[in-house]
Amino acid sequence: MKKIATLLLALAMVFALAACGAGGGNGGTDDASAAPTEEANGGGAAVTGDVIKIGGIFNVTGDQSSIDAPAQKAFALAVDEINANGGINGRKVEAVFYDGQTDTAVCASDAKKLIDNDGVIAIGGLSDSDYAYAAGAVAQEAGIPIVFSGATTPDIPDVVGNCAFMTAFGDDVCAHAAAEYLYNEMGARTVYVLTDTSMSYTSNLSAYFVERFKELGGEVTLEDHFSSGDYDFSAQIQRYLATGETDAMFMSTGPDDASTVIEQYRSAGATAPMISGDGWDADLWGVAGDLANKDVYVCTHYSTGDTSETVQHFIAAYTEKYGIAPENAFAALGYDCAQILFKAIEACGDDITAENIRTNIEAINGLVCTTGTISYTADNHVPDKTVVVTQSVDGALKFITNI
Which of 149, 152, 195, 399 would give a disulfide with 303, using CB separation of 3.0 to 4.6 Å? Predict the structure, then answer.
């Protein structure tokens, strides 16, 4: 029902904004006020000049900022690199960025502006499914391909439509990997599950985890819940400790709650290993400090410990441009999101249309990226990739294994 409500809201935005002449980008282009180089006429949109204009929607403010801000920076890095190498088929790439403000209505409005006002030929961005549904509905209506950088709900392409693609693996893959690591590698047979029920991502992640852990033969002794913004976990902690410590704890929260959850549970005496999904690939140490280095694991998309040339090039380039190493795996996903669009646009040759880009994304096979090798088909717009298991050690996520 939440997905349907989000899609209906996005479609309502399409009609509400149809006659509006909203302004340009937020300064993320060389010239946000320049005339569009594409005909923003839905699936027939085509590049007619020397500039290929693509859009980016990232929640660089609000609760999603810790994962979307690095993703946007990495996307912009990829644009700089492609232009430094001559662009795509001799054309320069220009990126127009909008801040989704961690608001589904704003994300839908941003997509509308990118298509109608800025004349983009394709869109990338967004690291949470709720915002992906909103922007995706607008892009689908216009026939514009949209590649989500970090959103992980596996049914996004089915719900949104054939213009939607994912850069990341699905929540089912991530959650199953967490369950398998706990059961097979750590020997866990009992587990406690805490879920933020206010987000589709966290609710789905827990459901997939519980399903797989039980299939393996494990027991979920207690499932508890909270809603993002509830900063006092004392009631949940008391219920957990009253049932007795489990072999492990699966903590399904968003990035902003991760450090608080760790600090409060550890401070109250909960010592069982904690594991979560890629939403924890941000700042675990904030209020938790060294407590976050005590048996905390994250299933995510890549590791800085990967010595491959692809990963090390990205880390070096990001560090050189921004003066800091990539903050988390969502930066790598933002970079890969751009690479997917570049690959599909390049395959268009001189006939760069929205429909050709969409078709070419479906044809991508074996594209080596920082977060794994990416392939799509006409029937599957979610890449099948391995999950990296990391452990929090001395304020950083250390590579443990791939599943």
Answer: 399
* Per-residue pLDDT tens digits for 309-345: 999 999 999 999 999 999 999 999 999 999 999 999 9
d(CA 33, CA 27): 9
Give the residue among 137, 132, 142, 147 at the shortest CA–CA distance from 95: 147
What's the pLDDT score for residue 282?
Answer: 76
DSSP three-state, residue 74: helix
Instruction: Judge residue 69's burial from the number of C-beta atoms within 10 Å of its C-beta, 0-12 exposed, 13-18 middle, 19 or more buried.
Output: buried
Our separate counts of H helices and E strands in the chain read 12, 14
Q: Is 295 left (phi over 0), alpha (psi -120 to 50) or beta?
A: left
Within a 10 A sphere around the Cβ of 12, how many other Cβ atoms?
13
Domains belonging to the chain, first-starting first, are 2-169+309-374 (3.40.50.2300), 171-300 (3.40.50.2300)
| Each residue's pLDDT tens digit, 39-80 | 333 456 888 889 999 999 999 999 899 999 999 999 999 999
Q: Which residue has the tokens 């005909």?
A: 39
Give me the pLDDT at residue 25, please. 40
Please classify residue 75 by burial: count the beta carbons closer than 10 Å to its beta carbon, then call 0-12 exposed, 13-18 middle and 19+ buried. buried
Rg (CA), the chain: 21
- Residue 204 is encoded by which pair of tokens? 């789905």
Residue 398 structure tokens: 């250390």
Q: Which residue has the tokens 């997905």?
A: 3
The answer to whether the beta carbons of residues 318 and 77 sit under 8 Å apart is: yes
The C-alpha atoms of residue 357 and residue 355 are separated, in whole angstroms, by 5
Prediction pTM value = 0.82
